[in-house]
């Protein structure tokens, strides 16, 4: 939400000050990248994944939680162990990421980290694995 507001403010400022642009001012402008973040229920999550060939499905729970059960095809990248940012560097930033945790808290934080690292489409499972039909 903050990024969206920042984008609109940047666009409005660009229109307002458009006649004042100098070459130095243009060099200091940054490009905003559109990020799609959706928190969806289990049915929407499953349908969205089904439309992807080889979806990037990430379970951010601990290995112990992961071993107790997960969504078929998920890769375990524990958000809490301190290696998450390094682990996501092996993922494709331009391809959608499907992410979940136990109830939705960690995946929300992990989604924020993914946005900071330049991922463009993040689909977060509302209610986490607890909301996934077994």
Write the layout of secondary structure elements.
Blueprint: H1 2-16, H2 23-27, E1 36-40, H3 42-50, E2 56-59, H4 63-68, E3 75-76, H5 84-88, E4 97-100, H6 105-116, E5 121-125
Parallel strand pairs: 1-5, 2-3, 2-4, 4-5
Could you characterize the architecture of this molecule?
With 134 residues, this protein is α/β, with parallel strands linked by helices. It has two domains: 1-32, no CATH class; 33-131, Oxidized Rhodanese, domain 1 (3-Layer(aba) Sandwich), CATH 3.40.250.10. It has helices spanning 2-16, 23-27, 42-50, 63-68, 84-88, 105-116, and strands at 36-40, 56-59, 75-76, 97-100, 121-125. A five-stranded parallel sheet has the order 1-5-4-2-3. The longest helix has 15 residues, at 2-16. It is globular, with a radius of gyration of 18 Å.
Residue share in β-strands: 5-15%
Instruction: Calculate the terminal CA-CA distance, rounded to whole Å.
Output: 33 Å
Structural class: alpha/beta
Q: Estimate the helix proportion, in percent.
A: 25-40%
Averaged pLDDT, please? 83
């Amino acid at each position: 939400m903050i990024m969206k507001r920042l984008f609109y403010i940047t666009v409005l400022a660009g229109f307002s000050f458009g006649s004042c642009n100098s070459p130095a001012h243009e060099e200091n402008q940054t490009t905003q990248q559109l990020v799609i973040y959706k928190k969806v229920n289990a049915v929407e999550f499953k349908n969205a994944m089904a439309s992807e060939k080889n979806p990037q499905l990430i379970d951010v729970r601990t290995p112990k939680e992961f071993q107790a059960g997960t969504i078929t095809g998920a890769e375990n990248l524990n958000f809490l162990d301190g290696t998450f940012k390094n682990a996501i560097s092996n993922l494709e930033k331009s391809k959608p990421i499907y992410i979940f945790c136990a109830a939705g808290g960690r995946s929300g934080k992990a989604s924020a980290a993914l946005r900071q690292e330049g991922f463009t489409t993040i689909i977060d499972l509302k209610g986490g694995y607890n909301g996934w039909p077994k």
